[in-house]
TrEMBL record:
Domain annotation Serine hydrolase: ranges: 3-208
GO molecular function: carboxylesterase activity
Phylogenetic classification of the source organism: Eukaryota, Metazoa, Chordata, Craniata, Vertebrata
Name the UniProt record assigns to this protein: Esterase OVCA2
EC number: 3.1.1.1
Source species: Xiphophorus couchianus
GO biological process, alphabetically ordered: response to retinoic acid
PANTHER family xrefs: ESTERASE OVCA2 (PTHR48070)
Alphabetized UniProt keyword annotations: Hydrolase, Serine esterase
Known function: Exhibits ester hydrolase activity with a strong preference for long-chain alkyl ester substrates and high selectivity against a variety of short, branched, and substituted esters. Is able to hydrolyze ester bonds within a wide range of p-nitrophenyl derivatives (C2-C14) in vitro, with a strong preference toward substrates of >8 carbons.
């Protein structure tokens, strides 16, 4: 059985290479099931931002998928805003990745990347992005965007099979925010772990990932 190809969408202040490093344990855990392909967001995050989100490692700059504060070019998951900036550029970057590196069976996102994945799935189901053809989504530490212009993504529950992963000790995206995203999906599967803001990949989690993935193989 060939592994499923999954497009990986990193979190805010990360990039493709730093997210690859942070998901090494997941790649090892599911190496027979998944081939993970990483891309980097188009928006550069300034280093002067002072928040609790860890910064990217490696040579690449920290990046993001949209800014909730247009003036400061910064992002906070809790920030209420009417308009954001950068989202269209990020959608274009995913479209280009699907064309040049696809096809992909599924999409996996972490933190801001998981919130972005929900938007990508909405665009796919509304047939607004014809290149997108994801069969499943994995959202780790996901949340509903607090930005007014993004509420259009949550009007109809999404049919795509989804696995929502979140930690009870997550201080960056509290589990209550991840739970708020669940009703936006028709039949969400849930993996809750006792830890914080990371992609869990302990042996204890393997079965849950495999049970979710096996119907796509």
């Amino acid at each position: 059985m060939a592994p499923l190809r999954v497009l990986c969408i990193h979190g805010y202040r990360q990039n493709g290479s730093s997210f690859r490093e942070k998901t090494g344990a997941l790649r090892k855990l599911l190496k027979k099931q998944l081939e993970l392909v990483y891309i980097t967001a188009p928006l550069t995050v300034s280093n002067v931002e002072n928040n609790s989100v860890p910064t990217a490692g490696g040579d690449e700059e920290p990046r993001g998928w949209w800014f909730s504060d247009i003036q400061a070019r910064s992002f906070s998951a809790q920030q209420q805003c009417e308009k954001s900036s950068g989202l269209d550029d990020s959608i274009s970057a995913v479209r280009e990745a699907v064309k040049t590196q696809g096809p992909f069976d599924g999409v996996l996102g972490f933190s801001q990347g998981a919130a972005f994945v929900a938007m990508l799935c909405s665009l796919q189901e509304q047939k607004l992005e014809l290149e997108f053809n994801f069969r499943f989504a994995i959202l780790v530490a996901g949340f509903r965007s607090a930005c007014e212009e993004h509420q259009k993504f949550y009007e109809v529950p999404l049919q795509i099979p989804s696995l929502h992963v979140f930690g009870l000790e997550d201080r960056v995206i509290p589990d209550s925010m991840s739970r708020d995203l669940l009703p936006c999906f028709q039949d969400p599967q849930v993996l809750i772990h006792p830890g914080g803001h990371f992609v869990p990949a302990a042996a204890a989690h393997r079965q849950m990932y495999q049970d979710f993935l096996k119907r796509f193989q």
